[in-house]
Amino acid sequence: MPHPAPEPALADLLDDPILHLLLERDRISHDGLRDLIDTVRERLRARTCDGMH
After folding, report:
1. How many CA atoms lie less than 13 Å away from 43 in the CB half-sphere?
2. What is the phi-psi region of residue 27: left when phi exceeds 0, alpha when psi lies from -120 to 50, beta otherwise?
3. Among 6, 18, 23, 35, which residue carries the largest CB count within 10 Å?
4. Longest Cα separation, the chain
């Protein structure tokens, strides 16, 4: 049985031309999506750190 392909990295997904077309269609900027991802990532880190104390 063949091994499943590894999941793509977030950077790979964000650079996908199809994603760019979808973002354009929905009037979402690439930078806006990256900012949202960074914000959520920071909030999750803060939440994880707060839960550890």
Report:
1. 6
2. left
3. 23
4. 45
C-alpha distances in Å from residue 48, one per residue of 16, 37, 38: 30, 16, 15
Q: Is the pTM of this model over 0.85?
A: no
CA dihedral 24, 28, 34, 38 (to 10 degrees): -160
Length of the chain: 53
Rounded to the nearest 10°, the torsion over CA 26, 30, 49, 8 is: 90
* pLDDT tens track for 13-49: 999 999 999 999 999 999 999 999 999 999 999 988 8
